[in-house]
Amino acid sequence: MSNHYPSLVAGLEDSGHSKEVTSPYNGEVIGTVSTVDPLGAKRALQTAYEIYRDRSRWLSKVKRIEILEKTAAIMRERFDELAVESAREGGKPLTDSIVEVNRAIDGVLNCIDCIRTDAGTEIPMGINPASEGHLSFTRHEPIGVVVAVSAFNHPLNLIVHQVCPAIATGCPFIVKPAGATPISCLRFVSILHEAGLPIDYGQAIVTDSSSTATALVTDERVGFFSFIGSAAVGWMLKSKLAPGVRCALEHGGVAPIIVESDADLDDAAPLLSKGGFYHAGQVCVSVQRVFAHSSIAEDLANRLATLGSAMKIGDPTLADTEIGPLINSREVDRIDEWVQEAIAGGAKVICGGNRLPNNCYEATVLLNPPKDCTISKTEVFGPVICVYSYDDVNDAIAEANSLMFSFQAALFTKDIDKALHIYSQIDAAAVMVNTHTAFRVDWMPFAGLKHSGHGIGGIPYTYEEMQVTKMAVIRSPSL
After folding, report:
1. What is the pLDDT of residue 477?
2. Contact 337, 318 (CB under 8 A)
């Protein structure tokens, strides 16, 4: 029997309306979650805003650290439960969901480090006649109510990235998880409450419609908007934000990788295959476009195909599954349509190219798809790696830079001069040398450029963005 998860809004009774959450692998109902209508969303926002406006209710740094420490402890106690739930509702294989829970716990602890190391600065005074007899310094305060809208592909860790910096800074928050994967979010926010966070300080809702979510996000009482999801939705919401609202948008990319002729393919191929097929390619910096020197392109494609074909596809809750399902059947339809278009246009199928039962898709490697086909121009968000051959690395760089997406890129070479040339010429917020584009640790900056996003993610950077710098200037004859 499935469980029911109510919305976590202070003082709000269950609406009586709910939606089912189903496994993307077999369609089994995992649970039901309550939905919130516009009045419920307004109540959540008003509750959070009243806290922000009443400084007597702000949580002290000591209390915030205590809450986060207890949260990490509870997560360790429920580690297996959190990992299995993430795998069930999101389809990420259990082995990778275990990594996600570890990252999430580390992210909570990272927020404690942010609190402990945060400090203002002294502004130089007494250095000209106007500033004589003055002292000036800055400190940081919470920016206001944080409203976070999240994505499905990392249903626990993304929530940690969006709400734990809010707790660390002292901002009340409201988080709306993806409709396909709300349970991990609701479980995590419940853990925060168990650890001592007042429910009116941290609320979680599943809205009854996109219009309810839009009204919540665009309200003038919002101080900071955190969004992870599609570019179309993210830019639309940003355009409707109230004046002065700060925001961070994390969209997808079409991560380019350049593999030079001197690259160690024994080392590169396993990294690239993992980066492309991990979570069935449903990662915003997943390996998709690999530009390989013509002397090695086919060899690399064959190596990727061998590795991908050997990966076990199936039930994400089984320990030996390496590639799970897509989030729903519509995504399978879309990916297959793009793959077949590329094949019809002349792409050579090295492996895969077929849909499988239970919303799964074969690990697919295509060699030299047409440059103008959809899969060459748009994020596939599926288990597909395209390999393109080149003779001149500057042509590869030009192709890599030709799209309006720019996130993380990568390159493989043993030549430091080649590496620095590619690094300096390629459009990206981060360039990985001799590892794949999906490499990430949660304390590094993580930013999409161009259509790929706005602002800087990564826990310390989000922590900084959710604060305002407040200056004091003191005039005293004793100075």
Report:
1. 92
2. no
Contacts of 454 (CB under 8 A, 6+ apart): 234, 238, 247, 248, 249, 448
Q: Report pTM.
A: 0.94
Judged on CB neighbours under 10 Å (0-12, 13-18, 19+), 93 is buried
Q: Calculate the CA 389 to chain-centre distance.
A: 30
Residue 8 DSSP class: B
Share in percent of the chain as helix, strand, coil (round to 5):
40, 25, 35
Q: What is the DSSP string of 344-408?
A: HTT-EEEE---EETTTEE--EEEES--TTSHHHHS---SSEEEEEEESSHHHHHHHHTSSSEESE
User: Which pLDDT tens digit goes with each residue over 351-372?
Assistant: 999 999 999 999 999 999 999 9
Give the single-character DSSP code of 313: B
Query: What CA–CA distances, in Å, run from 344 to 243, 329, 335, 348, 372?
Result: 48, 22, 14, 9, 12
Strand pairing report for 364-367 and 348-351: antiparallel
Position 17 scores a pLDDT of 86
In three-state secondary structure terms, 295 is coil
Q: Confirm or reject CATH 3.40.50.2300 for domain 256-441, answering yes or no.
A: no
Q: Which helix (H) or strand (E) holds 82?
A: helix 79-90
Task: Please tell me the CATH superfamily of domain 3-251+452-472, with its number.
Answer: Aldehyde Dehydrogenase; Chain A, domain 1 (3.40.605.10)
Angstrom distances, CA of residue 24 to CA of 316, 320, 327, 363, 375: 9, 18, 5, 18, 23
For the stretch 247-297, pLDDT in tens is 999 998 898 999 999 999 999 999 999 999 999 999 999 999 999 999 999
Give the pLDDT mean for 140-166.
Answer: 97
- Residue appearing with tokens 């509870």: 74
Domains in the chain: boundaries: 3-251+452-472, 256-441
